[in-house]
Write a structure and sequence with these properties.
By secondary structure, this protein is mostly beta strands. The chain is 11% helix and 33% strand. The protein has three helices and 14 strands. Strands 1, 3, 6, 8, 9, 12 and 14 form a seven-stranded mixed sheet that branches. The protein is globular and about 65 Å long. The chain starts with a helix and ends in a 17-residue tail after the last strand. Bound molecules: calcium ion (3 copies).
């Protein structure tokens, strides 16, 4: 279990000495400037869409957490709202709302991008993916009619080739998803080096664990104050 401020507060109420014990044991494991990332293993990493590391509204559109459409995996899903007929087929990195997922990769190579989502109409059923802020043409226009019949998986795109990108170095990379058509509901994401054309069954594999990764930027620490001279 991850011990956060809430748990510390609870423990403080329960017994003041527990706070000291928890604090001493926690700090060396998770310094204040640590970031977290989903951990790729065996050529696969799985993220619940509703667990992004960043959620950036853009052009008055936001990836919005919802639970109203049944059949989702995990805690819910994200919907690009408001749904007013917008389709950002190009220029989406600066026009479209974006969600980001930190992933620590051990395995390099080509990753196929499977998206589990759903859409009410063909004006709501597509999304773009990217890597480290880039928008590879192989990862845009993820789009399928399977989205129109409930939450389903696809790696299909409008370009007649499967959605994919190349992870060329191990370590932490940032995965992006940008709105294409508003109204799309994204539930879960699977990145895999497997070339299989068979979608995951049901809700797919469980979400990958999140691990602490070092941020290269240390925290800003105020300079120590000199003791007043006597
Ligand atoms: Ca469409
Ligand atoms: Ca729409
Ligand atoms: Ca989900």
């Amino acid at each position: 279990m991850r011990i956060d401020d809430h748990h510390l507060r609870v423990m403080k109420i329960a017994h003041p000495s527990l706070l000291i014990i928890a604090g001493l044991s926690l700090w060396p494991l998770q310094p204040a400037w640590a970031a977290q990332a989903f951990q790729e293993s065996g050529g696969q990493v799985v993220m619940e869409a509703e667990h992004p590391d960043a959620n950036i509204p853009r052009s008055s559109k936001t990836w919005t957490f919802e639970t109203t459409t049944a059949g989702f995996s995990g805690d819910g899903y994200l919907t690009a709202l408001p749904n007013t007929g917008t389709n950002n087929d190009t220029g989406y990195t600066t026009k479209s709302p974006e969600v980001q997922y930190n992933v620590v990769f051990a395995t390099t190579g080509t990753y196929y991008i499977w998206v589990r989502g759903t859409a009410a109409t063909t004006s709501d059923d597509s999304i773009h993916a990217g890597l480290d802020g880039t928008a590879p043409s192989t990862a845009d226009r993820i789009n399928s009619s399977v989205f129109l019949t409930g939450f389903n998986w696809t790696r299909d795109t409008s370009d007649a080739s499967p959605a994919r990108f190349t992870v060329s170095t191990p370590g932490v990379h940032v995965i992006q998803f940008w709105m294409r058509e508003d109204g799309f509901k994204v539930d879960k994401i699977l990145l895999t080096t497997s070339t299989t054309t068979t979608p995951p069954a049901g809700v797919g594999p469980p979400e990958s664990p999140r691990v602490n990764v070092s941020d290269t930027t240390p925290p800003t620490v105020p300079a120590p104050r000199k003791s007043p001279s006597r």
